[in-house]
Design goal:
287 residues, alpha/beta, 2 domains, two-stranded parallel sheet, 40% helix, disordered N terminus
């Protein structure tokens, strides 16, 4: 297991990207805050990074994203977190908070997809209000999008048989028997900001909810930024279409610490015999 280098009481550490391979996709944006050695960047610093972009990040309503201090309990629908982003571009952000910091960074990484997810939530929530149903009981599509936005990841793979092993929960065959193929044929890219937060202190049990893409080898050979742009466009199209991913179980569970090198313990075959982590799947005697 990676050593637990940080206290999740929100102590800042500019070297957090070294804690786990989970952070490699966001290196470019994490570097923007590498000069903050002793203390947290402020919300003004967050906004300065946003303002330095050649083009603003826009919501689906056309509003430029901007950072504002999180306020108290909202009194009206328009003041809630997601509607406020959609209607004004204002993303309410807590200071000295890893969860909100990673939420902020993922908007840089996946601007189109984040805007689409945000927009889809708005009519769904309004529908609950109009029907006077329990506001806390979200629809299946809302639950799926929230699960992905918080704890989701994308898997790019050039070999369909490896993707099928993921769908079939054949973890030992994937991670151990076909171990040598993974570095060339499969790439895991974290999307969810809560999953990044968990990466500060990795633990056996960490599971991502994934969208799987069968891709040509040239996609795997692209730079990180090229891959992020490709993923961003493909995810946005998927969610706008609304056909393939409609409910949480449409996402593929993935025990990410099974990836070679992601946990010191997985150098041993016995590591993959932990069925509490590497579960056999959904169904009888399964997840």
């Amino acid at each position: 297991m990676f050593s637990r280098n940080i206290d999740l009481s929100q102590k800042w550490d500019a070297d957090f990207v070294s804690f786990s391979p989970i952070f490699s996709p966001l290196n470019q944006w994490a570097e923007k805050f590498s000069d903050f050695k002793e203390c947290w960047p402020s919300l003004e610093d967050y906004q300065a990074v946003l303002s330095s972009l050649p083009n603003p990040i826009l919501t689906q309503s056309g509003k430029a994203l901007k950072i504002v201090q999180q306020e108290g309990k909202p009194g009206h629908f328009n003041e809630h977190y997601a509607p406020r982003i959609y209607l004004t571009g204002e993303i309410q952000t807590r200071t000295e908070n890893w969860h909100d910091f990673f939420q902020f960074l993922t908007w840089f990484m996946f601007p189109e997809t984040k805007a689409v997810i945000n927009a889809i939530h708005i009519p769904a929530a309004l529908s609950r209000i109009e029907k006077e149903t329990d506001l806390g009981r979200r629809s299946a599509i809302e639950n799926m999008l929230s699960l992905f936005d918080e704890g989701g990841a994308v898997i790019l793979c050039s070999d369909n048989s490896l993707l099928q092993l993921i769908r079939d929960f054949k973890w030992k065959e994937l991670f151990w028997q076909r171990r040598d193929e993974l570095s060339e044929k499969l790439k895991f890219i974290t999307f969810g900001h809560a999953l990044y937060e968990k990466g500060l202190e990795p633990y056996v049990g960490m599971t991502a909810n994934c969208i799987l893409f069968h891709v040509n080898e040239n996609i795997l050979q692209q730079t990180n930024q090229q891959q992020l742009r490709w993923i961003d466009k493909e995810l946005a199209k998927l969610f706008i279409a609304g056909q393939q991913y409609k409910k949480p179980k449409d996402l593929s569970p993935f025990p990410l610490l099974g990836l070679p090198g992601w946990d010191k313990g997985n150098k041993l075959e016995s590591y993959y015999e932990n069925v509490s982590y590497f579960r056999p799947g959904r169904g009888e005697n399964k997840l």
